[in-house]
Design goal:
By secondary structure, this protein is an alpha/beta fold. It has eight helices and ten strands. A seven-stranded parallel beta sheet has the order 3-2-1-4-5-6-10, sandwiched between helices. Helix 4 packs parallel to helix 5 and helix 7 crosses helix 8. It starts with a strand and ends in a 9-residue tail after the last helix.
Length: 244
């Protein structure tokens, strides 16, 4: 399987690549990024680091022939590129929308023209994303609705592809990671105070998404509990390549 990964230098993207390099059925891991993506630390002893290749993307809205050639024949993409709620305050919202929405919609469109069929596109949003664009939300409403709009467009693109593209949305809660403590957004902080924000470890997110990319999409949307459940199916064998 040829796997594409965006947001490859982030917390989840790094873990995805670390795990993927140790999965024998994944023969190629292509990281789309603005700079070279290095092999993560603590890869499994049997990991094949030669599978990792970086493709530099200068324009995320229209891929060059060189980028398309490099991703040609891909079987799946884990889309992790986004501006998080916490970091969004440093940008004007139009830029946040451009990165989160425009880049994602362009990505599924451009990738699907050269990918294998069916092409599995797994988009990661967040636990409090809202698809209903008519709702009025008090807490980070503009951001949450925008991420919901991305979900709507990704799923619509797949449904209109006549089976050429299969799409899935994942909605992790507060993400824990080795040596990082609990990574929480502004949404997570407020929600945690109310006791409603679920938690998940970064290794669980990565394991669940890789399992779905490889074995097939279980359903349209994976909530935090689904990610934890699916990860147990993978991590329950005691394989040491997954760092908890």
């Amino acid at each position: 399987m040829k796997l594409l990964v965006t947001g490859a230098t982030g917390l989840v993207g790094t873990e995805v690549i670390r795990q993927a390099l140790g999965v024998s059925s994944i023969t190629s891991v292509v990281a789309l990024a603005r700079r070279e993506v290095k092999v993560p630390e603590q890869v499994a002893p049997d990991a094949d680091t030669s599978k990792l290749k970086t493709v530099i993307v200068e324009d995320w809205e229209k891929y060059t022939p060189e980028v398309k050639e490099a991703i040609k024949g891909a079987d799946a993409c884990l889309w992790l590129l986004a501006i998080t709620p916490a970091k969004s305050k440093a940008y004007v919202f139009d830029q946040v929308r451009k990165v989160c929405l425009d880049y994602t919609v362009a990505g599924i469109r451009e990738m699907s023209t050269v990918a294998n069929k069916p092409f599995r596109f797994i988009y990661t949003a967040g636990a409090m994303t809202e698809r209903d664009q008519t709702k009025k939300l008090a807490l980070l409403g503009e951001y949450r609705l925008m991420r919901g709009e991305v979900e709507n467009q990704v799923l619509a693109f797949a449904s209109q592809s006549s089976g050429a593209v299969e799409a899935q949305v994942t909605r992790p809660g507060a993400i824990d990671g080795p040596g990082r403590g609990m990574i929480v957004s502004a949404i997570a902080v407020a929600s945690a105070a109310l006791g409603v924000m679920p938690k998940v470890h970064v290794s669980e997110i990565a394991a669940a998404m890789l399992q779905q990319a490889e074995k097939g999409l279980e359903k349209e949307t994976l909530e935090n509990a689904d990610l934890v459940r699916l990860a147990k199916e993978v991590l329950g064998d005691g394989n040491e390549k997954y760092v908890k």
